[in-house]
Amino acid sequence: MQERTSVNNPQIKAIGKLSQKKYREESGYYLIEGFHLVEEALKAKAKYREILATPPALKRLESLGLEFDQDKLIKISEGVARHLSSTKNSQDVFMTVKINQPEHFDFNYGKWVLLDDLADPGNVGTIIRTADAAGFDGVILSNRTVDLYNPKVQRSMQGSQFHLSLIKADLPEAIASLQAADIPVYASLLDPQAKQLGDFAPQAQVALIIGNEAHGVSADIAALADEKLYIPIKGRAESLNAAVAAGIMIYHFS
Protein backbone atom coordinates (compact mmCIF):
# COMPACT_ATOMS: atom_id res chain seq x y z
CA MET A 1 0.00 0.00 0.00
CA GLN A 2 1.33 3.41 -0.94
CA GLU A 3 1.09 6.46 1.31
CA ARG A 4 0.83 10.14 0.43
CA THR A 5 0.87 12.81 3.13
CA SER A 6 1.81 15.97 1.21
CA VAL A 7 -0.37 18.01 -1.13
CA ASN A 8 2.85 18.85 -3.00
CA ASN A 9 3.38 15.24 -4.02
CA PRO A 10 3.35 15.10 -7.87
CA GLN A 11 0.78 12.28 -7.90
CA ILE A 12 -1.56 14.18 -5.57
CA LYS A 13 -1.13 17.34 -7.64
CA ALA A 14 -2.08 15.44 -10.79
CA ILE A 15 -5.16 13.92 -9.12
CA GLY A 16 -6.19 17.32 -7.79
CA LYS A 17 -6.17 18.70 -11.33
CA LEU A 18 -8.97 16.29 -12.26
CA SER A 19 -11.38 18.89 -10.89
CA GLN A 20 -10.75 20.68 -14.20
CA LYS A 21 -12.27 19.48 -17.47
CA LYS A 22 -9.02 20.06 -19.38
CA TYR A 23 -7.07 17.62 -17.23
CA ARG A 24 -9.88 15.06 -17.19
CA GLU A 25 -9.83 15.01 -20.98
CA GLU A 26 -6.04 14.84 -21.13
CA SER A 27 -5.73 11.99 -18.63
CA GLY A 28 -8.88 10.03 -19.51
CA TYR A 29 -9.84 9.82 -15.81
CA TYR A 30 -12.18 11.65 -13.46
CA LEU A 31 -12.37 11.82 -9.67
CA ILE A 32 -15.27 10.59 -7.57
CA GLU A 33 -15.65 11.18 -3.87
CA GLY A 34 -17.57 9.53 -1.04
CA PHE A 35 -18.39 6.00 0.07
CA HIS A 36 -21.58 5.64 -1.95
CA LEU A 37 -19.99 6.57 -5.28
CA VAL A 38 -16.90 4.44 -4.65
CA GLU A 39 -19.12 1.51 -3.62
CA GLU A 40 -21.26 1.86 -6.77
CA ALA A 41 -18.13 1.99 -8.93
CA LEU A 42 -16.73 -1.17 -7.34
CA LYS A 43 -20.04 -3.01 -7.66
CA ALA A 44 -20.20 -2.05 -11.33
CA LYS A 45 -16.59 -3.18 -11.79
CA ALA A 46 -15.70 0.19 -13.26
CA LYS A 47 -12.11 0.58 -14.40
CA TYR A 48 -10.11 2.73 -12.00
CA ARG A 49 -6.54 3.82 -11.43
CA GLU A 50 -6.40 4.34 -7.68
CA ILE A 51 -8.42 4.54 -4.47
CA LEU A 52 -7.34 7.13 -1.91
CA ALA A 53 -8.50 7.10 1.71
CA THR A 54 -7.48 8.33 5.14
CA PRO A 55 -6.89 5.58 7.74
CA PRO A 56 -10.39 5.92 9.31
CA ALA A 57 -12.01 5.98 5.86
CA LEU A 58 -9.99 2.94 4.83
CA LYS A 59 -11.34 0.97 7.79
CA ARG A 60 -14.88 1.85 6.81
CA LEU A 61 -14.21 0.96 3.17
CA GLU A 62 -12.87 -2.43 4.17
CA SER A 63 -15.94 -3.03 6.35
CA LEU A 64 -18.18 -2.83 3.26
CA GLY A 65 -16.90 -6.21 2.16
CA LEU A 66 -16.21 -5.12 -1.41
CA GLU A 67 -13.32 -6.41 -3.49
CA PHE A 68 -10.70 -3.91 -4.61
CA ASP A 69 -7.09 -4.04 -5.72
CA GLN A 70 -4.81 -3.46 -2.75
CA ASP A 71 -2.02 -2.45 -5.11
CA LYS A 72 -4.14 0.52 -6.23
CA LEU A 73 -4.84 1.69 -2.70
CA ILE A 74 -3.20 4.89 -1.42
CA LYS A 75 -3.36 5.92 2.21
CA ILE A 76 -3.60 9.70 2.50
CA SER A 77 -3.48 12.28 5.27
CA GLU A 78 -6.46 14.43 6.27
CA GLY A 79 -4.67 17.39 4.70
CA VAL A 80 -4.49 15.62 1.34
CA ALA A 81 -8.16 14.63 1.67
CA ARG A 82 -9.15 18.26 2.25
CA HIS A 83 -7.06 19.26 -0.78
CA LEU A 84 -8.81 16.75 -3.04
CA SER A 85 -12.32 17.25 -1.72
CA SER A 86 -14.92 19.30 -3.59
CA THR A 87 -17.25 19.36 -0.55
CA LYS A 88 -17.17 21.02 2.87
CA ASN A 89 -17.75 17.74 4.69
CA SER A 90 -15.56 15.21 2.94
CA GLN A 91 -15.88 11.48 3.63
CA ASP A 92 -12.13 11.20 2.97
CA VAL A 93 -12.35 8.50 0.29
CA PHE A 94 -11.73 9.04 -3.44
CA MET A 95 -11.33 7.07 -6.64
CA THR A 96 -9.95 7.96 -10.05
CA VAL A 97 -12.27 6.31 -12.59
CA LYS A 98 -11.61 5.81 -16.29
CA ILE A 99 -13.81 7.90 -18.57
CA ASN A 100 -15.98 5.52 -20.55
CA GLN A 101 -17.11 7.24 -23.75
CA PRO A 102 -17.46 4.98 -26.81
CA GLU A 103 -16.53 6.60 -30.12
CA HIS A 104 -19.43 4.92 -31.89
CA PHE A 105 -22.82 3.88 -30.57
CA ASP A 106 -25.98 2.57 -32.21
CA PHE A 107 -29.16 3.96 -30.68
CA ASN A 108 -31.23 1.08 -31.99
CA TYR A 109 -33.38 0.15 -29.01
CA GLY A 110 -34.80 1.29 -25.70
CA LYS A 111 -35.78 4.46 -23.89
CA TRP A 112 -33.55 7.51 -24.00
CA VAL A 113 -33.35 11.09 -22.75
CA LEU A 114 -31.59 13.64 -24.95
CA LEU A 115 -30.15 16.78 -23.31
CA ASP A 116 -29.97 19.80 -25.60
CA ASP A 117 -27.27 22.11 -24.23
CA LEU A 118 -28.26 21.96 -20.55
CA ALA A 119 -26.03 24.21 -18.45
CA ASP A 120 -26.87 23.41 -14.82
CA PRO A 121 -24.86 20.51 -13.31
CA GLY A 122 -27.55 19.77 -10.73
CA ASN A 123 -30.22 19.46 -13.42
CA VAL A 124 -28.10 17.16 -15.57
CA GLY A 125 -27.23 14.88 -12.66
CA THR A 126 -30.83 14.79 -11.43
CA ILE A 127 -32.20 13.92 -14.87
CA ILE A 128 -29.68 11.09 -15.24
CA ARG A 129 -30.56 9.76 -11.78
CA THR A 130 -34.28 9.95 -12.61
CA ALA A 131 -33.79 8.14 -15.92
CA ASP A 132 -31.92 5.43 -14.03
CA ALA A 133 -34.69 5.12 -11.43
CA ALA A 134 -37.35 4.85 -14.15
CA GLY A 135 -35.54 2.09 -15.97
CA PHE A 136 -34.47 4.07 -19.03
CA ASP A 137 -31.57 2.74 -21.07
CA GLY A 138 -29.50 5.89 -21.25
CA VAL A 139 -29.01 9.62 -21.62
CA ILE A 140 -27.51 11.32 -24.66
CA LEU A 141 -25.75 14.62 -23.95
CA SER A 142 -25.21 17.23 -26.64
CA ASN A 143 -21.67 18.46 -27.15
CA ARG A 144 -22.52 21.74 -25.40
CA THR A 145 -24.24 20.23 -22.37
CA VAL A 146 -22.32 20.69 -19.12
CA ASP A 147 -19.47 18.21 -18.64
CA LEU A 148 -20.71 14.84 -17.39
CA TYR A 149 -17.67 14.49 -15.10
CA ASN A 150 -18.13 17.83 -13.37
CA PRO A 151 -18.02 17.18 -9.57
CA LYS A 152 -21.48 18.73 -9.11
CA VAL A 153 -22.93 16.45 -11.79
CA GLN A 154 -21.27 13.47 -10.07
CA ARG A 155 -22.86 14.32 -6.73
CA SER A 156 -26.29 14.76 -8.32
CA MET A 157 -26.09 11.47 -10.21
CA GLN A 158 -25.38 9.53 -7.01
CA GLY A 159 -23.76 6.65 -8.87
CA SER A 160 -26.30 6.37 -11.69
CA GLN A 161 -23.48 6.79 -14.20
CA PHE A 162 -22.60 3.17 -13.43
CA HIS A 163 -26.10 1.87 -14.18
CA LEU A 164 -27.02 3.16 -17.64
CA SER A 165 -25.44 4.35 -20.88
CA LEU A 166 -24.32 7.98 -20.93
CA ILE A 167 -23.29 9.10 -24.39
CA LYS A 168 -21.92 12.44 -25.53
CA ALA A 169 -23.00 12.83 -29.15
CA ASP A 170 -24.07 15.11 -31.95
CA LEU A 171 -27.82 15.34 -31.33
CA PRO A 172 -28.95 15.48 -34.98
CA GLU A 173 -26.99 12.30 -35.68
CA ALA A 174 -28.38 10.60 -32.56
CA ILE A 175 -31.94 11.61 -33.48
CA ALA A 176 -31.50 10.25 -37.00
CA SER A 177 -30.22 6.94 -35.57
CA LEU A 178 -33.15 6.68 -33.17
CA GLN A 179 -35.68 7.39 -35.88
CA ALA A 180 -34.02 4.89 -38.22
CA ALA A 181 -34.66 2.29 -35.52
CA ASP A 182 -38.35 3.32 -35.35
CA ILE A 183 -37.94 4.94 -31.94
CA PRO A 184 -40.22 8.01 -31.73
CA VAL A 185 -38.47 11.23 -30.70
CA TYR A 186 -40.48 13.80 -28.73
CA ALA A 187 -39.32 17.33 -27.92
CA SER A 188 -40.56 19.08 -24.80
CA LEU A 189 -41.33 22.74 -25.36
CA LEU A 190 -43.95 25.45 -25.10
CA ASP A 191 -45.26 25.75 -28.62
CA PRO A 192 -48.74 26.44 -30.05
CA GLN A 193 -48.36 23.30 -32.18
CA ALA A 194 -47.35 21.10 -29.25
CA LYS A 195 -49.61 18.44 -27.81
CA GLN A 196 -50.32 17.77 -24.14
CA LEU A 197 -48.24 15.07 -22.49
CA GLY A 198 -51.46 13.27 -21.58
CA ASP A 199 -52.22 12.76 -25.27
CA PHE A 200 -49.34 10.31 -25.49
CA ALA A 201 -49.57 6.74 -24.24
CA PRO A 202 -46.56 5.06 -22.56
CA GLN A 203 -44.47 3.23 -25.15
CA ALA A 204 -41.96 0.41 -25.16
CA GLN A 205 -39.38 2.62 -26.87
CA VAL A 206 -39.12 6.41 -26.82
CA ALA A 207 -36.65 9.30 -26.85
CA LEU A 208 -37.36 12.55 -25.00
CA ILE A 209 -35.55 15.82 -25.76
CA ILE A 210 -35.05 18.21 -22.82
CA GLY A 211 -33.93 21.74 -23.62
CA ASN A 212 -31.62 24.32 -22.12
CA GLU A 213 -32.85 25.91 -18.88
CA ALA A 214 -33.04 29.43 -20.35
CA HIS A 215 -33.82 28.84 -24.02
CA GLY A 216 -35.52 25.46 -24.16
CA VAL A 217 -35.06 23.03 -27.04
CA SER A 218 -33.33 24.79 -29.91
CA ALA A 219 -35.39 25.36 -33.06
CA ASP A 220 -33.08 23.22 -35.18
CA ILE A 221 -33.37 20.26 -32.81
CA ALA A 222 -37.12 20.70 -32.28
CA ALA A 223 -37.62 20.58 -36.06
CA LEU A 224 -36.11 17.08 -36.12
CA ALA A 225 -38.52 15.65 -33.53
CA ASP A 226 -41.45 13.44 -34.52
CA GLU A 227 -43.75 15.31 -32.15
CA LYS A 228 -43.65 18.30 -29.79
CA LEU A 229 -45.24 17.94 -26.38
CA TYR A 230 -45.76 20.04 -23.28
CA ILE A 231 -46.77 19.60 -19.66
CA PRO A 232 -49.88 21.65 -18.81
CA ILE A 233 -49.27 24.31 -16.15
CA LYS A 234 -52.32 24.84 -13.96
CA GLY A 235 -51.00 27.65 -11.79
CA ARG A 236 -49.33 30.96 -12.60
CA ALA A 237 -45.75 29.76 -12.97
CA GLU A 238 -44.37 30.43 -16.43
CA SER A 239 -42.53 27.14 -16.69
CA LEU A 240 -41.15 24.13 -14.83
CA ASN A 241 -37.57 23.48 -13.80
CA ALA A 242 -35.86 21.38 -16.48
CA ALA A 243 -35.17 18.45 -14.16
CA VAL A 244 -38.73 18.48 -12.79
CA ALA A 245 -40.22 18.56 -16.29
CA ALA A 246 -37.91 15.77 -17.36
CA GLY A 247 -38.92 13.68 -14.36
CA ILE A 248 -42.64 14.03 -15.13
CA MET A 249 -42.11 12.98 -18.75
CA ILE A 250 -39.69 10.18 -17.96
CA TYR A 251 -42.14 8.56 -15.55
CA HIS A 252 -45.07 9.12 -17.91
CA PHE A 253 -43.28 6.99 -20.51
CA SER A 254 -41.68 4.48 -18.11
Automatic annotation (TrEMBL):
Domain RNA 2-O ribose methyltransferase substrate binding: 31-103
GO molecular function, one term: methyltransferase activity
Classification via SMART domains: SpoU_sub_bind (SM00967)
Keyword ATP-binding in record: no
Alphabetized Pfam families for the sequence: MRM3-like_sub_bind (PF22435), SpoU_methylase (PF00588)
InterPro entries, per database record: Alpha/beta_knot_MTases, MRM3-like_sub_bind, Ribosomal_eL30-like_sf, rRNA_Methyltransferase, SpoU_MeTrfase, SpoU_subst-bd, tRNA_m1G_MTases_N
Keywords linked to the UniProt accession: Methyltransferase, Transferase
UniProt keyword Transferase present: yes
A single BP term in Gene Ontology: methylation
SUPFAM superfamilies membership: alpha/beta knot, L30e-like
Coiled coil feature spans: none
Protein family according to the UniProt entry: Belongs to the class IV-like SAM-binding methyltransferase superfamily. RNA methyltransferase TrmH family.
PANTHER family for the chain: RRNA METHYLTRANSFERASE 3, RRNA METHYLTRANSFERASE 3, MITOCHONDRIAL
Protein name, per record: rRNA methyltransferase
